[in-house]
Design brief:
By secondary structure, this protein is mostly helical. About 55% of the residues lie in helices and about 0% in strands. It has nine helices and no strands. α6 packs antiparallel against α7. The relative contact order is 0.13.
């Protein structure tokens, strides 16, 4: 992983604009996701991003959150309603969904990270990835992280992911006000700003 922050900024921009464009899963998404999973633990991933002063690792995790959400059961079910056969064996989408256990293993070490942004992004990614049947045994453990996101996050899409996970796993969410359905193009961390724009 290139330690030069200028190179990192360019790579993050391309990651957001080329690989994650229009909330779609592209042919390049699978190898890119594998690569990102492999570099999450790299020391250079703790380089601070310009403008927002958060670690690059948080940005990489948030890309996984957004991409996993685009391939989540909720989005697939919605799309299948209008385009039957959307999720079929051998498609790029199916290939990405098959990666979820591996991606979870890469994300899990950061669930207790000391940096709040990294910790929340890892929690969100884990909650979505845990939809995979092979990760069902992890869900009770992840419920703690879902509750933490609900208690501490000020981001409504992120809180909605946590709420939906708890609800779908059979946890009591009657003490939490239900969230309105999100527009299709308004997934987690979709704040309308480019990945590298200043937060103002």
């Amino acid at each position: 992983m290139e330690p030069d922050s200028t190179v990192q900024v360019t790579a993050l921009s391309e990651l957001s604009e080329l690989v994650g464009h229009q909330n779609s899963i592209y042919e390049a998404t699978v190898p890119v996701a594998v690569y990102i999973a492999g570099i999450l633990a790299h020391p250079a991933a703790m380089t601070r991003r310009p403008y927002r002063s958060v670690p690059i690792r948080a940005t990489l995790l948030n890309w996984l959150v957004s991409t996993a959400y685009d391939a989540s059961d909720e989005i697939v079910d919605r799309t299948e309603h209008y385009f039957p056969g959307f999720l079929t064996h051998g498609t790029t989408l199916a290939a990405f969904r098959d990666l979820r256990p591996m991606l979870y293993r890469a994300v899990a070490p950061f669930l207790q990270d000391s940096h709040e942004d990294v910790r929340e992004a890892a929690g969100l990614a884990a909650l979505i990835l845990a939809e995979h049947p092979a990760l069902a045994q992890r869900r009770d453990h992840l419920a703690v992280h879902a509750r933490r996101i609900l208690d501490t996050s000020s981001d409504d899409p992120s809180r909605r992911i946590a709420w939906k996970a708890l609800e779908s796993w059979g946890h009591d969410v009657t003490d939490i006000e239900p969230f309105q359905e999100e527009p299709w193009d308004c997934g987690p961390h979709s704040d309308g700003r480019g990945d590298l724009e200043p937060p103002f």
